[in-house]
Backbone:
């Protein structure tokens, strides 16, 4: 009995100390919240205010991209004529690449890293919630949006908007595939605790102040007022031998979001989404961001990833059937692009993307 009593005391002490530890971790993670999972970011709010005034900002890093897109759409008072939605492969698509010298239209690039079809639907849904739809939507379509086995759930932050859009598209109540709020799991995440402590100890390093960039000759991440992004000098002016090295590394297992990609999925939802936009008099344009020549060759000659050819063929067939304009290609050779036109295995430089989009300098006249 005496031993049982000692064990009970030890167990109660263990439970008490564990509870205190978990409560302390939760309180610290909630209070500091360096990724702004539970609080609005004053950093984002100030940045959006600068961008909506037509100014570029430098040093804009360590922010939640999807939270930013939501905040920008909600706070921006200017009505957008044209928007782009895609992944980081579309993030350097700029207003001048689309409109040339024509400046009368308002454009914003809402691309986010590792974008999925759910991101496209959610972000455009935020405009629908605001009461209008842009007149033209450029969809930067990556092959992985048709891969049901991709491991990317960042879009779930925007799941309320996604649910509303699914209801708009199909006319029924719908819920996102998984409705659990993964944010709250971070309250007990020890790694998030470490990140929050580092942020608290060194706030300038983890949450640096952005500043207005009067021109683009700044060695930093620069977000233009149109939402597009410039990388620091080491990426912007990278030597081609480094680019080729990165292009080879890209195809090493596992390839980003292309694993277990044996067949095309999500095509019905994709087509229903596009059809919904066109019925709302939104002009839809498809952009296929190219891969680096070496990367494309290595991917398409490997049966594990060759399905990206099928993805492009599907998009082109669908677009031809529905008279939708397609710009670009996953195949860089079809566009006359070389290694020097890229920064790694899947990101194209400005000159390359500007050449691809010359055909949009004049209004697209196809009628939906």
Residues:
């Amino acid at each position: 009995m005496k031993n049982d009593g000692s064990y009970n005391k030890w167990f109660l002490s263990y439970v008490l100390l564990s509870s205190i530890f978990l409560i302390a971790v939760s309180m610290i993670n909630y209070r500091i919240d360096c990724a702004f999972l539970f609080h609005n970011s004053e950093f984002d709010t100030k940045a959006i205010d600068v961008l909506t005034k037509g100014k570029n900002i430098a040093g804009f890093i360590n922010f939640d991209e999807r939270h930013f897109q939501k905040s920008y759409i909600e706070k921006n008072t200017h009505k957008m004529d044209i928007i782009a939605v895609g992944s980081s492969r579309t993030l350097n698509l700029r207003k001048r690449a689309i409109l040339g010298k024509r400046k009368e239209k308002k454009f914003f690039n809402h691309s986010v890293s590792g974008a999925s079809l759910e991101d496209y639907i959610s972000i455009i849904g935020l405009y629908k919630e605001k009461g209008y739809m842009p007149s033209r939507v450029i969809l930067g379509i990556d092959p992985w949006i048709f891969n049901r086995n991709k491991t990317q759930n960042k879009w779930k932050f925007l799941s309320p908007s996604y649910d509303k859009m699914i209801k708009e598209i199909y006319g029924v109540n719908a819920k996102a595939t998984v409705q659990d709020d993964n944010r709250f799991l971070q309250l007990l995440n020890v790694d998030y605790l470490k990140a929050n402590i580092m942020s608290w100890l060194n706030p300038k390093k983890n949450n640096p102040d952005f500043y207005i960039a009067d021109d683009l000759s700044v060695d930093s991440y620069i977000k233009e007022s149109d939402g597009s992004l410039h990388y620091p000098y080491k990426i912007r002016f990278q030597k081609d031998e480094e680019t080729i090295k990165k292009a080879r590394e890209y195809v090493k297992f596992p390839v980003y979001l292309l694993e277990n990609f044996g067949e095309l999925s999500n095509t019905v939802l994709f087509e229903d989404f596009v059809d919904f936009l066109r019925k709302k008099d939104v002009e839809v344009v498809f952009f296929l961001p190219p891969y680096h020549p070496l990367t494309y060759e290595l991917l398409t000659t490997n049966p594990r990833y060759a399905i990206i050819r099928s993805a492009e063929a599907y998009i082109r067939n669908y677009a031809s059937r529905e008279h939708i304009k397609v710009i670009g290609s996953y195949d860089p050779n079809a566009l006359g692009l070389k290694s020097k036109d890229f920064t790694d295995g899947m990101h194209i430089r400005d000159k390359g993307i500007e050449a691809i989009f010359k055909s949009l300098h004049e209004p697209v006249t196809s009628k939906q």
